[in-house]
Write a structure and sequence with these properties.
Strand content: 15-25%
Number of strands: 7
CATH superfamily of the largest domain: Vaccinia Virus protein VP39
CATH class of the largest domain: Alpha Beta
CATH architecture of the largest domain: 3-Layer(aba) Sandwich
Number of helices: 9
Shape: globular
Largest sheet: 7 strands, mixed
Oligomer: single chain
Strand order of the largest sheet: 3-2-1-4-5-7-6
Length: about 240
């Protein structure tokens, strides 16, 4: 099942807009991207992988001279890009990241994608990123490291309750309902591996090690200790 079959693009667009943690996430992406691409970055090609609502594409389009392309296998995302005046000039590839049609880029950015990849597929997903570009940046939300399944559930509950409360505070009721449902699946042990299954940054590093990848940097931001989770950015290079 595609993500946007049960989460509307409009709700998700509100979810990841105008929040301090998302600002920090974008700031981290920008810092690491320019650190490795250099500035000015005129003519450099960057792929927004798993583009979703197009927020990353819009954000990166503000970099002078940077060439942005986007890809996502979901047909609803393709329609969203083609019909949105802020996005319809960005070249869009209606394929998944393993497609040979994509070619090569100077960098690839995947924000909010990793926790939607099935756990067994995550190492090969990481390896594919460095096939696409010499610089790969993963930005995502995750839960605090844990030593038992009980601790994992407690971290999930704290993090989801924080997200739900933030959604309710911003009156994004659709998001609050969706996140409440995800939390219920965590509590029942029926969380969809590959649908919405959050892990800690250390799990990403373990997945990377399986394919001989080591990050150049891992940045954390957000209320990790207080709310059992937050956002992180991991940068890999060839």
């Amino acid at each position: 099942m595609h993500y946007y079959e049960h989460t509307s693009i409009e709700i998700d667009d509100q979810t990841i807009a105008l929040h301090a943690l998302i600002d920090a996430c974008n700031g981290s992406i920008a810092y690491r991207l320019l650190e490795h691409l250099g500035f000015p970055c005129v003519g450099k090609r960057v792929l927004d992988l798993g583009a979703g609502t197009g927020q990353v594409s819009r954000f990166l389009s503000g970099f002078p001279g940077l060439i942005i392309e986007a890809c996502d296998p979901d047909p609803k995302v393709a329609l969203h890009f083609s019909s949105n005046p802020e996005l319809n000039r960005i070249p869009f590839h209606s394929v998944n990241c393993f497609s040979l049609e994509l070619g090569k880029f100077d960098a690839v950015v995947a924000r909010g994608v990793y926790h939607h990849i099935g756990k067994s597929d995550r190492p090969s997903f990481l390896k594919r990123l460095l096939d696409l570009a010499p610089i790969a940046i993963i930005a995502d939300e995750g839960i605090q490291e844990y030593s038992s399944e009980g601790e994992r559930l407690r971290n999930c509950e704290k993090w989801y309750r924080y997200v739900i409360a933030e959604a309710q505070r911003r009156k994004i009721e659709g998001l609050a309902l969706i996140e409440t449902e995800y939390l219920r699946h965590e509590q029942l042990g029926t969380a969809d591996d590959g649908g919405d299954y959050k892990e800690s940054p250390s799990h990403l590093l373990n997945d990377a090690a399986k394919v001989n990848m080591k990050p150049k940097s891992v940045d954390r931001y957000g209320p990790w200790d207080e709310f059992g989770g937050g956002f992180f950015t991991a940068t890999f290079t060839q």
